[in-house]
Write a structure and sequence with these properties.
Layout lengths: L5 H9 L6 H5 L4 H5 L3 E5 L4 H13 L5 E6 L7 H8 L6 H6 L7 E5 L11 H6 L5 E4 L10 H19 L7 E5 L10 E2 L10 H10 L2 H12 L5 H16 L5 E6 L1 E3 L15 H10 L5 E3 L8 E3 H17 L1 H6 L16 E4 L9 H10 L16 E3 L2 H25 L6 H19 L4 E2 L2 H9 L2 H6 L9 H16 L7 H40 L1
Helix pairs in contact: 4-13, 8-9, 8-11, 12-20, 16-17
Length: about 525
């Protein structure tokens, strides 16, 4: 499929259509469970948080209230950020189906990185009527300063759990972790593992040391862990284990989260982390080499599937509340704690694995569908297993062309930008290569059992069975999604994008042909010179 058509766009948009929710909801148990509930969500302005709020409001229309924690950021007040969030296209479907949805959302100004979550005494009192907590807030930057990462990923988790103990009518607490929290193990089951450090000891360390001392100590602290993110998420899980006693709690561990597969719109994302960043950069012609073992399984999952699973896990945890709390005093060992705190490895490799090679082949097959007007070069992308080869590719395919372009920009009076851009890209590549050059053996029995416990009606609304996922359709939706939602390049500019892409293709192959002829000519000259010496 090389040309886009109106029917293609119609087919893509129809992917987000679902059965009449009003009819299905009458028979579904999960929407009824959320009816009349007050829900507290941290990280509601983040990627998963946005989708979680949208899904709850659209599919659980009888919920009472969503408390959305938000702080001031980058010179914008929390009220301004709150208003701007709901201008995102991801909420268009919700606005059509539930026009008055905003009445169910209440902004709570707070900061998860601060003491007591930065909540005022009045807000603390107000939030005591919370019935459900989704703790989604986290810093996902792999190279985040350790103080920030610990405060957001660990301290906030402890404080929220302590606060949850004061809520008299709490039904469930859902903590969103990552499948790679204990990536130092090649075999990862749905259970607690020994923490790399005691949470309270690490928090005490933060109070004692200054930033410079902490930064110098970071490599020794994280030890085997590849980055600060996975290190702090591992300790956060231990925090949940220690401080969730008396609270019906579960932990959801999604793997690498990609764009949405179908809903509320196909291919939606709002960030360039992980696999979305790779595909986006490659699609624009910037990224041409990735340190990756193409035969390894790509442990990726669609964002909308993750959100549906999080909601279902919440329902199931609340449903089994009495059973979970009754075994608190009978399972003191770490390895047995999952009987009290269910753990879900939400991964694709167990049911529907796809290798990086196949994933990238799907993308390459459809690369010409909706080229963006912001493309800087024709698509040329390689997965390099060997680091040495990858480094050479970075020099000859990234840095040399960037140097030439920046020199030209400087000479014509414009600001050089490509060298700086590639430094950021290479830094991004380095931190994700740990997850692209190896694979893990995951287990997801709890996820499968949860799906089997759900009714047919609930499965229709909250789809997360990865066995049924069509990877080619998912990647097909990803391409225009990244164009529209990340590049901010509307589909109305497709013809201009195609025209530019044709020119880039001609320039690309002209350059390759010229370089090949030049290389052959120099080889011939060298051979003739050697012959002349004979």
């Amino acid at each position: 499929m090389s040309l886009i058509s109106t029917s293609y766009i119609d087919d893509l948009l129809s992917m987000s259509e679902s059965p009449d929710n009003n009819k299905v909801n009458c028979q579904a148990e999960i929407p009824q469970f959320f009816a009349g509930s007050n829900i507290l969500i941290t990280g509601g302005s983040g990627f998963l948080g946005i989708l979680l709020i949208e899904k709850l409001l659209r599919c659980c229309p009888d919920l009472k209230k969503i408390y959305m924690i938000m702080r001031s950021k980058k010179g914008k007040s929390s009220e301004q950020r709150f208003k701007e969030q709901f201008d995102d296209p991801v909420y268009e479907r919700l606005k059509k189906e539930r026009p008055n949805f905003i009445d169910k959302i209440q902004l709570v100004e707070a900061d998860c990185s601060e003491l007591n979550l930065g909540l005022s005494l009045q807000d603390q009192e107000h939030l005591l009527d919370t019935n459900i907590i989704f703790h989604v807030a986290a810093t996902v930057r792999f190279n985040e300063p350790i103080r920030n990462a610990v405060n957001i990923n660990i301290r906030s988790t402890k404080q929220l759990l302590l606060f949850a103990k004061e809520m008299p009518n709490l039904k469930a607490f859902v903590y969103v972790s990552t499948a790679f929290s204990h990536c130092v193990n090649k075999r990862i089951e749905e259970k607690f593992y020994s923490s790399p450090m005691e949470p309270d000891k690490l928090l005490t360390l933060l109070d004692i040391l200054d930033d410079k001392q902490l930064d110098n100590l970071t490599p020794f602290l994280i030890n085997q862990w590849p980055n600060v993110y996975t290190f702090t998420k591992a300790i956060a899980e231990e925090t949940v284990r220690q401080y969730s006693i008396g609270i019906p709690t579960c932990i959801v561990r999604p793997s690498i989260v990609m764009t949405t597969a179908t809903e509320p719109v196909p291919g939606w994302t709002n960030n360039i982390y992980g696999v979305s960043g790779v595909v986006f950069s490659a699609g624009l012609g910037l990224l041409r080499s990735l340190h990756c073992n193409s035969e390894c399984v790509a442990e990726i999952v669609p964002a909308d599937y993750v959100v549906s699973h999080i909601i279902a896990a919440c329902w199931d945890t609340a449903k089994r509340k009495d059973t979970l709390l009754s075994i608190e005093n009978t399972t003191p060992k770490i390895e047995e704690e999952t009987e009290r705190v269910p753990m879900y490895n939400y991964v694709s490799s167990c049911q529907n694995p796809i290798t990086w090679k196949i994933f990238m082949n799907y993308l390459q097959k459809n690369k010409n569908i909706v080229p963006s007007v912001y493309c800087v070069w024709y698509y040329m992308f390689f997965l390099n297993k060997h680091l040495f080869v990858h480094r050479l590719a970075q020099i000859f395919l990234h840095m040399f062309p960037a140097l030439i372009v920046d020199v030209v920009l400087f000479l014509i009076g414009r600001k050089p930008m490509l060298i700086k851009a590639y430094k950021k890209i290479h830094k991004f590549e380095t931190v994700i290569s740990y997850f692209t050059i190896q694979e893990w053996q995951f287990y997801n029995d709890a996820v499968v059992k949860l799906w089997n416990r759900m009714s047919l009606s609930d499965r229709q609304i909250f789809t997360f069975n990865l066995s049924d996922l069509d990877w080619e359709s998912c990647t097909l939706a990803m391409i225009p999604g990244l164009r529209v939602y990340l590049a901010k390049d509307p589909l109305s500019t497709i013809e201009q994008g195609k025209a530019k892409y044709r020119k880039l293709k001609i320039a690309h192959y002209t350059l390759l042909t010229s370089l090949t002829i030049l290389l052959l000519w120099n080889i011939i000259k060298f051979v003739l010179y050697i012959i002349s010496l004979w």
